[in-house]
Design a protein that fits this description.
Elements lengths: L3 H13 L11 E7 H11 L3 E7 L12 H8 L3 E4 L8 H8 L4 E4 L8 E4 L2 E4 L7 H18 L4 H27 L7 E4 L5 H7 L2 E3 L12 H14 L3 E5 L5 H10 L2 E6 L14 H17 L1
Parallel strand pairs: 1-2, 1-3, 3-4, 7-8, 7-9, 9-10
Antiparallel strand pairs: 5-6
Length: 297
């Protein structure tokens, strides 16, 4: 929890923070809530802004606990980018405690949210970036937010956004082609939590998860038994691990069903710079390759 000491630190930080660039050539400070969103922002900002992420590579934003240093970074920011759709349950408290005067932009604005069942309740699925079409909406929102925060660099942000959107067009064609190569009868897998609903809807692979939307939840013995029965009944060919979850659950399921363990999928976070998914483009290409490889075998 963000206590009294943190609020005092935030107050001091805000008093010394720059709410915007002090000179025309100064870079604005942009803080994104997690690594994937920060990567999208860097592609739009280019060299005109300094972009950082609160939740870094291979880290779980669902279970993140903000620190006083995070509050200080928000206090010094010009622009704060968040995913929205309930993804960052901690962000409103952090923004409030930091006292920041930064503009806060919800990058998923305009996305048509999926509804999903989470512990018996219907709620919005926050993992909208798993559809490349939605990532393009994020890019448009990020571009517009950067222009509002730093209008002198409008031309830079517009050009960067257009160039990156063209790369997303190429990416989407690649993902569709990878899935199209998989026989329809084999397009079902098990993943560790329900983070791929938008990917499933966009590209036609069924993802079944023993956990709900949040990796904070524990899988009950009853739910695990149901998943095992479903794998056997439907002859689901593969189970996949994710970079932000404990691999023991998937290994147990594979042992009890005989399903193949596929490669690691990246859902809520990028990999480290020397990993297979250090950018959003790499993440989507890596996931598509892993799915195709496992389901065609």
């Amino acid at each position: 929890m963000l206590g009294k000491a943190l609020r005092l630190l935030c107050a001091v930080a805000w008093m010394t923070a720059a709410a915007g660039p002090t000179h025309a050539h100064d870079k604005i400070r942009v803080v994104a809530s997690f690594s994937i969103l920060a990567d999208l922002a860097r592609n739009v900002a280019g060299d005109a802004a300094d972009v950082s992420a609160l939740v870094g590579p291979d880290s779980d934003a669902h279970a993140y606990a903000p620190s006083p240093a995070d509050a200080k970074r928000l206090a010094e920011a010009t622009l704060v980018l968040v995913n929205g759709l309930g993804f960052e349950g901690w962000i409103e408290r952090l923004v409030s405690a930091s006292g920041t005067k930064a503009m806060v932009t919800v990058a998923s604005t305009g996305v048509t949210p999926r509804q999903m069942q989470d512990d018996g309740r219907s709620r919005a699925d926050p993992h909208a970036w798993q559809s490349v079409a939605n990532a393009k909406i994020y890019v448009s929102n990020i571009r517009d937010a950067l222009v509002r925060a730093d209008p002198e660099a409008k031309a830079i942000y517009a050009a960067n956004a257009a160039a990156y959107t063209a790369r997303l067009d190429v990416l989407e064609a690649e993902v569709k082609a990878a899935v199209a190569a998989i026989p329809p009868a084999r397009r079902s897998i098990i993943t560790t939590h329900d983070a791929f609903g938008y990917f499933a809807a966009a590209y036609g692979i069924a993802f079944i998860a023993p956990q709900g939307v949040s990796t904070e939840q524990e899988v009950s013995a009853r739910a695990l038994a149901q998943i095992i029965r479903q794998i056997k009944a439907e002859k689901i060919p593969a189970v996949f691990l994710e970079n932000i979850t404990d691999p023991r659950l998937m290994k147990r399921i594979a042992e009890e069903t005989g399903a193949k363990i596929g490669g690691k999928l990246y859902s809520d976070a990028l990999s480290a710079a020397n990993g297979p998914a250090p950018t959003y483009l790499d993440l989507m290409r890596h996931n598509a390759r892993e799915l195709r490889s496992a389901l065609l075998d």
